[in-house]
C-alpha cells in the first residue's frame, strides 16, 4: 500500500505560479472563475512588505503542492492578514488547520509584532468547512466583503458638485500619488477596517500591478485640496471589465454626490477602453450590508466573503 507523504514547507521565489494555480483552482471550484492573473499576483506576493520565503507556507503531498497560505503584516505591526489557497481536495480541512496554525506561529515569531496585534482572514461564505475550522481556532466573524458587478454600457455621465476639478491620477508623478494616498488615508483611518494600506504597499500596488493601466484612475479636488479618488484596474476575472479597487472620499465632502460621480466617471473610462462591465469590492458590517452607493449606480452583489479576526497572541498555537 502506498504511504502518503505530507510536508509543510516554506515558500520560495519560484512559488508565485504555484500559489496562483492553487488560488485559482479554489475559486474556480467555488465561483467558476479565476481570482488572480499570475503577473498581478506576483505584484502582491513580492512587495516592500512581502517575501515568499519568510511570509508563505505550502503543503506538499507526495511532492506536489496542494494548499498554501500567504501572510501579510501591516506597519506598525499591529495587524496581519492571511490569504488561503485551498482547492477542493482530500484532507483539505486538515490542511487548512495546519496552514492557519503555521501562519499564526510565523507571525508570532516576528519580534516587531505588537502584543495586542490581530490577524484577519477572508473566507468565501460558500466554504462552510473552511469557516468551521477557522472559527475553531478562535477567529470571530467581524465584517463581510461584497463583490458587485454592473453593465456600464448605458451608465449616465457623472454629475459633479460645484467647485470640483476632475483629473486622471498619474502615479508616476509624486505629488499626484501623495495626494491620492492622502485621501485614502483620511477616508480609511486606523481601526476603520476595509482596505487601508500603508504608503509603501500602496505605491507598489498602483505602480507595479500590471492591471493598473494608465488613464483609469481618477482624483478630484476642490480649492482646499484632494477630496476623492477612485483607484481603477483592469479586472482579471472577467474579460471586458474594469475593477474599482479602492474608492475614497474625505469626510468633509461626504454626502455631496462625489462617490457616485467617481463611480460614473470610472464607468465612462471603462467604456473608453471598450469594456462593458465594472466590478467593485466593498466591506460592510455583518448585521447589515450597506450597498446603497453601489446599487444606486446600477451595481448588484455577486457574492461575499466573511472577514474573521482573532488576537494574534490569544493562545498557544
List its salient traits.
2 domains; single chain; twelve-stranded mixed β-sheet; Aminopeptidase; alpha+beta; 12 strands; 317 residues; 9 helices
Mean pLDDT: 90
Helix/strand structural class? alpha+beta
What distance lies between the first and last C-alpha atoms, to the nearest angstrom?
33 Å
CATH superfamily of the largest domain: Gcn5-related N-acetyltransferase (GNAT)
CATH class of the largest domain: Alpha Beta
Q: Which band does the percent of strand residues land in?
A: 25-35%
CATH topology of the largest domain: Aminopeptidase
List the helices and strands in order.
EHHHEEEHEHEEHHEEEHEHE
Number of domains: 2
- Low-confidence regions: none
Globular, elongated, flat, extended or rod-shaped: what is the shape?
A: globular
Number of strands: 12
